[in-house]
């Protein structure tokens, strides 16, 4: 037993001596390299040593750079999102942020941290690397902060050689899919407007702000059948990616919202965005000078988005003004090509080849006067669904009363429902009356007085119109008789 103990002690001493020698040698090599070899050669030496050890390893490492040239690397972005939820006991540092008004925390790996992921029973090791470069002409296209613009970032994915096909054909596609789902579920909806100062910068032409609009379908004052139709159409659209590809159509859907001002067109758009969790891109065509700008703006919009063009009838009417503005600029000493957004350019934007540059997009046009629109705009494929935003109905009033007053029935409801159709008021007008008083009964009586006043206006306008028509008819008959008399006198 004493002999066995002595042999173990001797073995331990040998191991410790060997480890000490290796450590001393490593420190000596490190000192020599640091003191006698120029810094420019350090990277080459360590890279060579790493390659020597790699030749004897059964592991394969993939490097995933942040950019592919000047274009974002989809795999890098997906890994960044995916690994934020893959925390292991060995992870000691994380990056966490929360932009103002957003709901969720953003969690990401910190520099040089390691995360191990298990997929189909196989181990995949991730490391996030950030290297500062001194190259004067290098900059990071995404980060313009002076401390980050010269930083090269990448992920290293290491796994067993035998899992190469699994990584390429299954694991990485799975990460991209999961990252898209996480990004869609956790994102804060934004509304984007055109930044005309950066109209020629593809990455900065749209300026986003958070969309805090509270509208949802449950609170929209619409007929239940119409609301149900819109919901079913939206649900069917987002599920038909393969169907659109199969029939050879771009995966997009066009809506036309038409009706008087105040009937809830903007609220419906916000409700659609909140329901689908889609960003909104608000496009003002009258500010654009040429059709090519339309194409650039379309290319710069993201998938899963709603593109809105409001008051499309006014946009078409202002085309002469656009041309005149170009001529005026030239007359003031600025050489500017006379150009404008044309109807053909708009049609190509909606339904031409450029409309297929992206997936899962909804294009919404609004107008107060559908009769002013060119028939070419209204056909299916351009405006697939026409939604008439009507005046407030008894059903819409009940929904507004429930939302604003918290009541579903009241003794004054019957009187209101009898006159609301005749008064022809918008949901916005009804909502404004319900907001004027805190007391429920006073609020409803105020609405009744408002509706009666509106009804009286309508009746007086109708009577006046009838009177004008009658006077015009009498004048026409009188003029006809006078003309007949005059003709007979000329004949005699």
From TrEMBL:
Keywords, ordered alphabetically: ATP-binding, Hydrolase, Magnesium, Nucleotide-binding
Protein family membership: Belongs to the AAA ATPase family. BCS1 subfamily.
Source organism of the structure: Nicotiana sylvestris (Wood tobacco)
Classification via PANTHER family: BCS1 AAA-TYPE ATPASE
Gene (name only): LOC104244349
Molecular function via GO: ATP binding; ATP hydrolysis activity
Cofactors, names only: Mg(2+)
ATP-binding keyword on record: yes
Xref: Pfam families: AAA, AAA_assoc, AAA_lid_At3g28540
Composition bias, Basic and acidic residues: 474-492
Upper taxonomic lineage: Eukaryota, Viridiplantae, Streptophyta, Embryophyta, Tracheophyta
Reactions the enzyme catalyzes: ATP + H2O = ADP + phosphate + H(+)
Listed name of the protein: Probable mitochondrial chaperone bcs1
SMART domains: AAA
């Amino acid at each position: 037993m004493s002999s066995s103990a002595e042999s173990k002690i001797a073995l331990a001493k040998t191991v410790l001596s060997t480890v000490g020698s290796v450590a001393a040698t490593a420190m000596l090599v490190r000192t020599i390299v640091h003191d006698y070899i120029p810094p420019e050669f350090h990277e080459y030496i360590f890279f060579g040593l790493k390659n020597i050890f790699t030749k004897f390893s059964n592991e394969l490492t993939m490097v995933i750079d942040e950019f592919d040239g000047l274009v974002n690397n989809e795999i890098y972005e997906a890994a960044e999102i995916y690994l934020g939820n893959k925390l292991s006991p060995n992870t000691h540092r994380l990056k966490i942020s929360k932009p103002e008004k957003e709901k969720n925390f953003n969690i990401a790996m910190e520099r040089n941290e390691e995360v191990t992921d298990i997929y189909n029973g196989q181990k995949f090791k991730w490391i996030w690397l950030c290297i500062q470069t001194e190259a004067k002409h290098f900059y990071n296209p995404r980060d313009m902060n002076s401390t980050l613009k010269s930083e090269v970032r990448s992920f290293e994915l290491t796994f067993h050689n035998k899992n190469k096909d699994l990584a390429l054909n299954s694991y990485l596609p799975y990460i991209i899919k999961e990252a898209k789902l996480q990004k869609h579920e956790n994102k804060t909806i934004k509304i984007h407007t055109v930044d005309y100062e950066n109209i020629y910068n593809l990455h900065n032409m749209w300026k986003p702000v958070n969309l805090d609009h509270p509208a949802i379908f449950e609170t929209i004052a619409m007929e239940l059948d119409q609301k149900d139709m819109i919901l079913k159409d939206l649900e069917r659209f987002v599920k038909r990616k393969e169907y659109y590809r199969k029939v050879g159509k771009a995966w997009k859907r066009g809506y036309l919202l038409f009706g008087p001002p105040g009937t809830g067109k903007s609220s419906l758009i916000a409700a659609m965005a909140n329901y689908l969790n889609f960003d909104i891109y608000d496009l003002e065509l009258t500010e654009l000078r040429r059709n090519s700008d339309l194409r650039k703006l379309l290319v710069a919009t993201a998938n899963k988005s709603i593109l809105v063009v409001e008051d499309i009838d006014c946009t078409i009417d202002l085309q002469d003004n656009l041309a005149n503005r170009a001529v005026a600029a030239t007359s003031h000493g600025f050489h500017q090509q006379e150009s404008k957004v044309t109807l053909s350019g708009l049609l190509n934007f909606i339904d031409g080849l450029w409309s297929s540059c992206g997936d899962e997009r909804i294009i919404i046009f609004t107008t107060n006067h559908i009769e002013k629109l060119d028939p070419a705009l209204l056909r299916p494929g351009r405006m697939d669904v026409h939604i008439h935003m009507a005046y407030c109905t008894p059903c819409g009033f009940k929904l507004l009363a429930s939302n604003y007053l918290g009541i579903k029935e009241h003794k004054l409801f019957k009187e209101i429902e009898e006159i609301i159709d005749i008064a022809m008021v918008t949901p916005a007008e009804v909502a404004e009356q319900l907001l004027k008083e805190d007391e429920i009964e006073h609020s409803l009586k105020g609405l009744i007085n408002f509706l009666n006043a509106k009804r009286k206006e309508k009746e007086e306008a109708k009577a006046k119109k009838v009177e004008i028509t009658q006077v015009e008819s009498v004048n026409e008959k009188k003029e006809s008789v006078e003309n007949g008399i005059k003709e007979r006198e000329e004949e005699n």
